[in-house]
## 1
Amino acid sequence: MAVPLSSGTGRRRVPSQNGRLSVEVVIVPDAKAGGALIAGAMADLLRRTPDALLGVATGSTPLPVYEALAARVRSGSVDTSRARIAQLDEYVGLPADHPESYRSVLRREVLEPLGIGMDAFMGPDGAAEDIPAACEAYDRALAEAGGVDLQLLGIGTDGHIGFNEPCSSLVSRTRIKTLTEQTRVDNARFFGGDVGQVPHHVITQGIGTILEARHLVLLATGEGKADAVAATVEGPVAAVCPASALQLHPHATVVVDEAAASKLKFADYFRHTYASKPDWQGI
Ligand code: PGA
């Protein structure tokens, strides 16, 4: 069963288009700068909406975001006392207290450093006996909580967002998915390098579910993500690259370091656009 939130408000807010209707690409010098930029956007959101529901991602890429936000919490410039956290995806079959279940990872890497309790956390139950029911319950719980205000995303080398692997339906809801061999190999480093330990199945928010968040922020760093980033931003909207669904969202931001931006044909245009934007607009 999905973990209920202590303070779901059931409110709906309209997506913030923030003055533009295209995927904004922000090219930053390195991962740390990307983390600081996105943590700044989260801090601004929490100032405007103290009980904002932040959608968070696992993996190596988002860590600089959480570190930068935790530094702001420690310095007292961000108040997370009413903030709420929603999980993006989860392995199927790992007990919730397994150190590599995403619930455990998020508790360690996000909730504890930000001073947010598990009563303000919601996620799908990857250990449920009835997985389809757990998926439906999580989609329902997200809606009842008022929807995700800002969803942070990584991207797989194969273009996945959440665990929506290539050829996932662009209107999919939270459901069980089978990981590609590439994703299992990519994630083996979290299981002592043993790909045999990486579960084959996961629960992931669907692409349609993800698109309901009010602001999507995808962070990609390193050359290994350059092809996926180019397909996401400059390729067609196509299920073969699930992240390309961001092109359908009214407020999507793709933050990339120079290496991840290295295959973008319009990199100079993106740099010029970002350098010229008004300060009040934020990302
Ligand atoms: P990574 O994972 O940040 O560890 O590269 C990203 C993803 O699989 O979404």
## 2
Amino acid sequence: MSQRVYIFDTTLRDGEQVPGCKLTTAEKKILGPALEDLGVDILEIGFPHSSPGDFEAVQEVSKLLKTATSCALSRAIQKDIDVAADALQYAKRPRIHTGIGTSDSHIKYKFNSTREKVLERAVAAVKYAKGFVEDVEFYAEDAGRSDLEYLCQVLEAVIKAGATVLNIPDTTGYCLPDMYGHKIKYIMENVAGVHNVIVSTHCHNDLGLATANSVSGVQNGARQVECTMNGLGERAGNAALEEVAMVLRQHHHELGFETGIQYKKITEVSRLVSETMGMPVQANKAIVGRNAFAHSSGIHQDGLIKNRSTYEIIDPADVGVEGHNIVLTARSGRRALAYRLDQIGCPLNDVDLNRAYSKFLEIADQKKEVVDTDLAQEIVPMFEKVNV
Ligand code: KIV
Ligand code: ZN
């Protein structure tokens, strides 16, 4: 039996915090329903108290969502919570996400406060939010660097105050997968009442470990993952939705988890997010990068043409990638050239292929990539039978 992991998408909130990626209400109204169609369970739409524009965006997008929970962020401040609740008034499934920093660094430098006072503020915020909505998620900011015993005390207290979800953010992307997994396990084993709520990961990517940490969290008891499309987010970003979802899918037999993500829509939504935010996806980005399924070296192409499983662990079509993935460069071999020529209607025998390959290498040494129009203009005319 698979266990369900809930996908909490924060592209519109943490993702939007990337400099230059700010979204208008109209843009959030395009992306929100697209993310819901992708199958996310919870959509963090924004931080309503941060600006009138974000208040409006949360209100408008939450009206559009049919199945996903609409979530709004707030600090552990009554005014923030009032505004979040107001913005969520039309949501079918509203959730207030409130919280406070629990690491000694946050307590001392951000709040100039004490552990006791921060615990009191956490409890008060959750109780206050419960006055507006049933579903209240508590975040312990910088949990990744918080003292574990103290973190557990805070979590136990906010469960008693009515929290339904406990978010354990590795805000600074500091943890190693084992450390983060251990933290979640310890919480699962030592916090009274934890089995009546959902524990969530929220991992940042400062050391490139956000996906690994999120998966480790799930393996140790978390059942919600907070993530963003294309891994967007503060600084080096958040755990990438597409990576977490595909790790859980590709390792379903060993791990036994499932999500509601419609995998075939991943590429389309990734492109929509990238275009709407004006943030290109790096070419070698796992799952959604331009080169994620491209094969350029002769050795790899030869294996791939014989059998895809030699160099592909994911069928590109499973994430909605269409078209060929054999890229022709000066490192490509005869088989790949023959394959591409065949695909554009120019099958060649071995003798002709040798001639074609010599010409191909001349072109390829001058260019980064040889595309179909190069073949059509420079190689196909060498063989009269061809019709492209
Ligand atoms: O990274 C973080 O700690 C956050 C919280 C506001 C949830 O984004
Ligand atoms: Zn964050």
